[in-house]
Specification:
The chain has 14 helices and six strands. It is an alpha+beta fold and 292 residues long. β1 and β2 form a beta hairpin. The radius of gyration is 22 Å and the shape is elongated.
């Protein structure tokens, strides 16, 4: 990843989203040559010199203090995810990449798979920041069945399936929302791990092979993904909309456990029961566990 380029594009795209009115600045007459705020307006709001802010937006965050980063984030009205991403980009510039590649993560502890398997009424899986599924329970595998077709490289990657598999679009009926979520999560991870070679290869593959991914990637949107609702179009069960909760695993840095659920008595709950019944008719598959 080119951190300086990412900083430039991230700050420029955020600046373009804020109007003078939203920032509480007077809007003078005449045509503005740039969308959103000018650099000098951001500098004024952040309490720094114009020359200093221009230097920041050109990709030089390594020497910026926490106070300056906070001031810029406040001026551009960053949300929690954008503020964290700005800090990640600054940290990436201060840290030299390791001379040797990071030691590959070993197999997940068996206890994690036992936890997943104990969640018999909820589809659940563990993923890393690249959206590789590293472990999954029986109902989760049934829900994500289109991803686990024979011949699919392991670990299964949600983004690769979504953008490159022939059935990817049909599996996510709320396509725009799902597309934006996936790209934003990968962009967030790129800020946290700019020297991750596997992430770089994945993004390069997606940018090269998917115009939709490339266009969304250029927007530099980021997000945190803790809880919400996700729609699926399952080939056997049909449409099902489930609530999800995503929880970081403190003992396994960088990994997230995601579990889906539905309120009893709802159509989604009936859909989960139907999914469970369909899974029971399928051949038993071994649990999915793959090294990161």
């Amino acid at each position: 990843m080119d951190t300086a380029h990412d900083i430039r594009e991230f700050l420029a795209t955020r600046r373009a989203k804020i109007t003078p009115q939203q920032a509480g600045l007077p809007a003078f007459g005449g045509n503005r040559r740039v969308p959103g705020l000018r650099r000098e307006e951001v500098a004024l709001l952040a309490g720094v010199s114009i020359d200093y802010y221009v230097r920041l937006e050109r990709g030089h965050l390594a020497g910026a203090s926490e106070e300056v980063l906070d001031a810029v984030a406040n001026a551009l009205q960053f949300d929690e995810a954008e503020r964290a991403h700005l800090y990640d980009l600054a940290a990436a510039q201060r840290t030299r990449p390791a001379r040797r590649s990071k030691k590959p993560r070993g197999p997940l502890p068996a206890s994690i798979q036992r936890v997943l398997d104990s969640m018999t009424d909820s589809p659940a899986f563990v993923r890393n920041g690249r959206l590789d599924i590293l472990a999954i329970n029986r109902l989760g595998r049934a829900l994500y069945a289109p991803l686990f077709t024979s011949g699919t490289p392991r670990p299964v990657n949600i983004a690769r399936f979504q953008f490159l598999a022939p059935t990817g679009r049909g599996f996510f009926p709320d396509w725009e929302a799902s597309l934006n979520t996936t790209v934003s999560l990968l962009r967030t991870e790129a800020g946290r791990a700019p020297h991750d070679a596997e992430l770089t290869r994945l993004i390069g593959e997606l940018v090269t092979r998917s115009d939709e991914f490339r266009i969304a990637w250029a927007k530099h949107n980021v997000r945190l993904h803790h809880t919400g609702r996700k729609a699926f179009h399952h080939p056997e069960v049909g449409d099902i909309v489930l609530d999800f909760d995503a929880m970081a695993l403190p003992a396994q840095p960088g990994l997230t456990l995601t579990a889906y659920s539905a309120e009893p008595g709802t159509a989604a709950h009936d859909g989960l029961r139907l999914l469970s019944a369909w899974a029971a008719t399928e051949d038993t598959h071994p649990a999915v566990r793959a090294a990161d």
